[in-house]
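User: What would this chain look like folded?
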Amino acid sequence: MSDRRQKRRDLLKKTFICAIFAAIVIPTALSAFVLLQLRELGRRMGGFEERLLAHESVLMGMAAADEGSDSGESVETSVFFTAPLEESLRSGSGVAGELQGAESAPADFYLTFDDGPSANTDRILDILSEYDVKATFFVVGKTDEQSKAAYRRIVAEGHTLGMHSYSHRYQEIYRSVDDFAADLTRLQEYLYEETGVWSRYYRFPGGSSNTVSGIDMRELTDYLTGQDIIYFDWNIASGDAASGGISRQRIVANCLSGAVGMNEGMILLHDAAGKDSTVAALAEIIEGIRGDGQGRFLPISGDTPPIRHIN
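Assistant: Here's the prediction, encoded as structure tokens.
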């Protein structure tokens, strides 16, 4: 009788221990699994947001282009961008400490400015000079003396001169490969005449994933490859092309939150006369990403890994 009681006690003891173990281990394992799933979902949503941004950018830019097509001037692309909550940035020294592990090499970031030159170009260049930062300017074709001087200053100060189409008119650029080629050649030759630089870098108006083009965008990307021209999209959007304007704080928040976790960050900004908030935000963007030395800025070059929406 005593042996039976002892065996029963031992069984109850083992059952109790197993129950406690299960109560601790199973929730922990489930929590880890859920965390991994949430991270994967966040990564996928980030990619979806990037594509959505590109499509909305093109659609809104087309509407603006239709309104201004008779003026002979380039028209900016309008962008709607929903950024992560600004609270994610309120971590003391900014995002630099989150960009990479303490032992790893600095993350590389590329400040890129579309649609210039403009009345703001000199202000942007002054800030870049103050912080000893080199950037990339994807310019359009402008023939006034101020713009010509801006092209030359961009080159003289060591920044990369990229192309963003001569006219920035979607309905013309994306009508056919021949029309695209004629527009690109006009800009490439014009920039060479003004600066002596034969530009090899291009950004499609609306990005390579735009849905407005009348031809398959891969025909255009193949054309660029055949011309030894490298095209770049972006993976961090400042939101500064919003048609209703955007605050300095929101531009900074968009850029810094987008930079978290990046190894290669291509930041989309705009160089246009009405983009005073972009100019006001630029120093904070540089300081926030540089932080404790974990983020560094580079101009686009032939060695830059292409950031592309389509391949």
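Confidence is low (pLDDT under 50) at residues 43-94, 99-103. If you want, I can go into more detail on any region.
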